[in-house]
Queue: 2 jobs
Job 1
Amino acid sequence: MKTNHIIKSIKAREILDSKGTPTIETELHTNIGVFYASVPSGVSKGIYEAKELRDNEKRYQGMGVKKAVENVEKIIAPKLKRKNFLRQKQIDDIMIKMDGTENKSRLGANAILSVSMAVCRAGASALKIPLYEYIAKLSKENTVKHKIPYPCFLMIEGGTHAGNNLDFQEFMIMTRQDCFSKNLRTGQEIYQNLKKILIRKYGKLNTNVGMEGGFAPDINLSEQALNLLMETKEKFNDKDANIILDVAASEFFKNKKYKISQKKFSSDKLLTYYLSLIKRYSIIGIEDPFAQNDWKGFQKMVKIADNNFKFIIGDDLTATNIDRVKKAVKKKAVNGIIIKPNQIGTISETIETIQFAKKHNIKIFVKHRSGETNDDFIADLAVGVGAYAIMAGAPVRGERVAKYNRLLKIEQELYSS
Ligand code: PGA
């Protein structure tokens, strides 16, 4: 390994994410150039996620990240100065140690991740290879067999992501045709068709969108949203376009009960409800069907998976955290996991979690957050680690299509001569 790949200095700044909430952008100055990274932020966060540092001062409704910026410039930067940025794991370990907490609450997962991502970009550039290829190397993935993951496009939003009364957070369509550009086109056509259906059925006021670009119509029942999805994907068969849900059940789990449309459900009753939905609609998978500590619910759900209803995906349950994923594997509680680098806070830990999961035949779904920036890192991450799927929101809005457009570019690089 060359030793002249040196970090010279690190700068950071407070910028706004797609919700208008502050987040952090970091600039890594090296002897081969300057590398940037910015981090996203969620609103329906799980309790097992690493902590993003917020200022809790009057400015920006308490959401400022001036302290995180300061931590990058005054605490992390001096320690990483003159370090070899090709040593991703060593650098991530230094930051983890410097932070010293279980959940990165001292320096902030937002501060640490922004540096970790920029270091990764510098590494790829030093080796003169694309970022996805560098991530594949770090992940010990077979770089000859790169595949673009299947996209899951957000169509309808509810829960904490929209100003309507839908209990479930995301109603998505996963397209699984033979190449990404076809999948993107199908997703876009289904989305635009949905807009026409919404206007016809509910009027144009119901075509406003939620935080991640999905429509947020004024409807109350999951069945109404599912009927809309079935109608809009009508001309596609189930192999090409399926429904996938992010129920985000932790958000409506209160006082030991799940509350849907003003009715209270036990875990078993909720499972029965899911079974009735799966029978009626072509649902291929559900993310977070139960709350983040309801292991039994997840375990029962995995048992009903079959060829049509395939994926039981942990998000709040597993939080990109290897210990949580180990527990989920041991308990047979999931067969897929969401990967969000900011749930754990470094690229090395993200990759370790993915490697462990893949070894145990758990499918990888790389996902964005509701507050995004135009940083397209997760597109390269998804390809590099050989993820099964990517969820980057609706096929609209700059911060969402940044990821899909990056995948188009990667596809062109990989497959056109
Ligand atoms: P969040 O949403 O980013 O607001 O936490 C979670 C998700 O989109 O899965």
Note: Residues 180-202 form the longest helix (23 residues).
Job 2
Amino acid sequence: MKEDKKFHIQTMGCQMNERDSETLCGMLAELGYTRTENRQDSDVAIINTCSVRDNADKRFFGTLGQLKKIKEQRPDFIVCVCGCMMQQQYIIDTIKQKYPWVDIIFGTHNIHEFPKLLKSVISEKEKIVDVWKDAGEIVEGMPSKRLYKFKAFVNIMYGCNNFCTYCIVPYTRGRERSRCPEEILKEVRALAADGVKEITLLGQNVNSYSGSPENDPDGKKTDFADLIYMLQEIEGIEKIRFMTSHPKDLSDKLIQAYTDCGKLCANIHLPVQSGSDAVLKRMNRHYNREQYLALVNKLRDAVPGITMSTDIIVGFPGETEQDFEDTLSLVEEVGYDSAFTFLYSIRRGTPAAGYDDQIPEEVKHERFDRLVEAVNRHSAEKNAAMKGRVERILVEGPSRHDKTTLTGRTEGFKVVDFEGDESMIGTFRDVLIIEGKTFSLRGKLV
Ligand code: SAH
Ligand code: SF4
Ligand code: F3S
């Protein structure tokens, strides 16, 4: 085999997948592979897929189709596909039928077995499909090649038990499992020792984190707020963020933690999905509009200046014009700093896929446009109000749009672009906000 083996990885979907890809990169590095950004040039290509909406599925099949040419030119080029799409049998069947040249199909529950699968495909020259239906024990201590030097994602739990009726995630990621607190602390201490200053705790619903002590699974459980207090004590870590938090489980204890723990950033992503009680009920969200708004007020009273973002789905089955207007009025009432807006997408196997009152595409799109107008108007207003403030920013790197500018985020998670030199990357700097745009801020070093 040639000496300088290279791999290419493409990650779709959420931070869970980003984190899994870091683990895959870590394992490949241990096997002697280096990463390349050019797929043409790679010996092994991985696509880590997302299945949350139909356009994610489509994008995957589009990309996969392109790989066929490379495979034809170089038969020893190895194509691996993994992630949430692979947890669905009909996807595996489609790949086997239409893309039979794919070498390895594996799932979200057996990432740790990837080196074994890869070695086996190389030596045996036979294709492998290995997708576990259920999650096994949480595997700790896996290698990782982190995406960023100064900030890191930390999984605190896996899976989801909420079964929102539109959502595929509980089926692709399995039931909720929390890591034990000692393992999380050990990982974060190691990250801090390695120069990481900001951590983002990951889980589909971090509010229901419930960690058992390592040697005593029946012992006193650590809840999410307890965990924040513990992490607050770790020297070197200066900022703590988390996502995502489900409104139904957000505790007063967590709100108190914002006050007590200086490192916890004054920002929350609190997906509302809809402003209509009827829709929320059919989505199985377990809160109503009034409870959600009360929570927003409680957070704003307790945490001055807290920024808020959300996720909203338009065109859920049965959504009437009135239901949609309830969503619009909720957006006006809350005034989010930003919001992710989605057209409802039918996911095979979820309860809502079987509802017979699906909304016509043109109605969905028309509502979507009205929603985006409201959301963007509030974002622009909130960002404009930042003008004149000085924010302490962790400099993350050159801006995505313009390599001569640096970028970072405010405590409230707003992107700021400013002039500076690359030696500042990884340090905290005070930046004066000079302009607020719809999706970002412009600043100046002070
Ligand atoms: N666990 C997180 C969300 C994970 S999915 C939470 O509960 O907040 C991210 C977002 O995708 C969801 O909040 C939802 O707004 C959106 N989403 C999920 N399934 C969808 C579907 N079938 N159609 C459209 N949007 C969907
Ligand atoms: Fe999906 Fe709901 Fe779980 Fe979030 S909480 S991952 S939206 S089922
Ligand atoms: Fe997508 Fe799976 Fe995340 S479906 S959004 S990658 S958990």
Note: The longest helix spans residues 361-384.
